[in-house]
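Predict the assembly for these two chains.
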Amino acid sequence: MAETLLSIEGLRKAYPGVVANDDVSFSIAPGEVHALLGENGAGKSTLVKMIYGLVRPDSGRMLMKGQPYEPATPHAARAAGVAMVFQHFSLFEALNVAENVALGMEDPPKQRELAARIREVSETYGLPLDPGRLVGDLSAGERQRVEIIRCLLQDPKLLIMDEPTSVLTPQEVDILFETLRKLQAEGTSILYISHKLEEIRTLCDGATILRLGKVVGTCDPKESSAREMAEMMVGQTLHTPSREEKPLGDVVLDLTALSLRSANPFGTSLKEIDLQVHAGEVLGIGGVAGNGQDELLAALSGEALSPAEAVKLNGQPVGQLGPNARRRLGLLAAPEERLGHAAAPDMSLTENALLTGAIREELVSNGFLKWPAAKSFAEKIIERFDVRTPGPANAARSLSGGNLQKFVVGREILQRPICLVVNQPTWGVDASAAAAIRQALLDLAAEGAALVVISQDLDELMEISDRFAALNEGRLSPTRPAKGLTVDEIGLMMGGAHDMEVAHVDA
Amino acid sequence: MDLSAINPAVLLASLMVASTPILLAAIGELIVEKSGVLNLGVEGMMITGAICGFAIAVQTGSPALGFVGAAAGGALLSMTFGVLTQFFLSNQVATGLALTLFGLGLSALLGQGYVGIKPPPVGDINLGPLADLPFIGRVLFQHDAMVYFSLLLVAAVWAFLKYTRAGLILRAVGESHDAAHALGYKVVWVRLMAIAFGGACAGLGGAYLSLVRVPQWTEGMTAGAGWIALAIVVFGSWKPWRVLIGAYLFGGVTVLQLNLQAAGLAVPVEYLSMSPYLITILVLVIMSSGRGRAALNAPASLGRSFHASS
């Protein structure tokens, strides 16, 4: 592989206040699967946006097969044979599969012809899809197939994939890799972005590691260990959260046949969920996004009401109580969406601390706010959870994702919950902050609280859970002890391969 | 009361005339909302179109030029909304309300010399033998060109949204501007075009009032037609044919209650006057009440500002 398909030389892109990419260079050979590794905020997204023509570099140049390559728009990039599968943000829920595919193509054929081609390509690559279905009705894995097929229909020379496996079950990941290997055998280069190191080790031929916008190293993923790569990404040694073994306490949270219709027309309704969580235990709930996680959190936090007996806290029925009444009893929740759900973006950290802490921290008397107490509560969260911010008067929006996440999780932990429900506690958080949040959750459980951790990060769940269950289409699998569960078993609990099949192209 | 004074053929024929202004404004707003923009300034653009069309028709003596001028005036006014919301990212609701107030004031200023003047008449289209058909001829085939144009426009908008690539891009922009941007579509440009189209249609609707329906110029003569057009778009679930039904229903009840008033029905006039609004909204609410499916047709990005930075 002496020739190169795409080579990047000294790219730089600065935004006001931050340099997203600085002097980034690497190259990809035809048929190579190249990994781009880095923490959140390392500049991976900006880099691929430049390759895809969404962002223009300030300086540096790109060469495609030796020719200068300066895409001004995604149309130009597609014309040059570059296709991209986005992590999110590029499908239209209210449009059907064929329409979504047509929008991503330069010169789409007539709808009927296109539908036939979608069927043909999707069967060849083992990604069955019905072109007439609304994307909003599809599962996360199926939506990704739409994106991949949209790219494949254009015979790309370079396929960019931005964190493609974050929404897939392990079985679906295997099938995706099978498809990618077929493509590779056909000569397509793949630029693969991920922070899941084991995947990169099985799939990729070369890797470039970014930290704070700069290339900090390259390696052959097949030769390096996951730990070596992780430490290159983070730039420091990682420590694994620790905990002690403890016998289980009494049942704290008890769900009996909880069914709930989703408030969102594209949401998943909960079906007959039974679940017991004991004091001092961490119950991990896995599952592909969009299988009822948000609805389960809403049902537990009190945003969505259910029959009184369906949700019990320490034996007391709370199904008909709203969020504040449940907080008073010690059932607290930290939702996934930081800006807008867990925190009010334009309000200060003190005000945000007040919003959920008012009852348990007694920050209100006779309807009047106790500002000094609220401020010291916010300061306590900032100090205990190492939130990097000038002070509690700053707006929640001004914090980086990881810092705000530490703040919203810390805010609930400091209110001494009897039962805490968190959804995606370390989503978009860098590795050292994630380890700190996990340790705090384990410490809380060690103090005797019952924890429900909903997450799509299976490694995280295996690390902190005592017992594990999976959500699949609104149903909860039976819970099993987390220790000794294999990846295959977890995958089956998550619903297996959702009728995907292995690609049957003869390359 | 004398119901025999009401001639069904005349009633149905005047229904089509009464509905046309609202239909024009509503079909324009449908395109605007499908692109993800909520323009509450329909009333202001209609009345501006009414005076622009009236003034130009009077000056040139040509109603056709009047309609062209009305469309241009409405589109021009809508561009102030477009620039403010698309480039300066102002709040769409507040800007739309301001546009209505601005349009009402502007039209009063422009119209000062035109009160009490008769505009040049708009002739009916000669459809030959069709017009002589009994009953149907009177109802359907003795109208001016704008009535047929408005019906053609509904069909064109329907086909545009359903069958063309440009229509697909427009819906995509209204559904998720972030995704459309990521695929390389020019969100702001698409929305500006949609806003201009909406302004032109509202202008035509206004001019139809001042040149055909009334026909003369009085201040504030749209009298809420723009607001009912907005309501029809929402309750018609953003579907062109439902918008047509809504507009004709409103026009029909309006004409009917006027006839009933004239016939001396023993019901207070106020109830009759409010009946078109009540009945139209009720029927459309019931039609769109199937939970979920109707919501699916709503543009998901409606009313949200777009900036390429995210």
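Chain B touches chain A through 21 residues (CB under 8 Å). The domain at 3-297 of chain B is CATH 1.10.3470 (ABC transporter involved in vitamin B12 uptake, BtuC).
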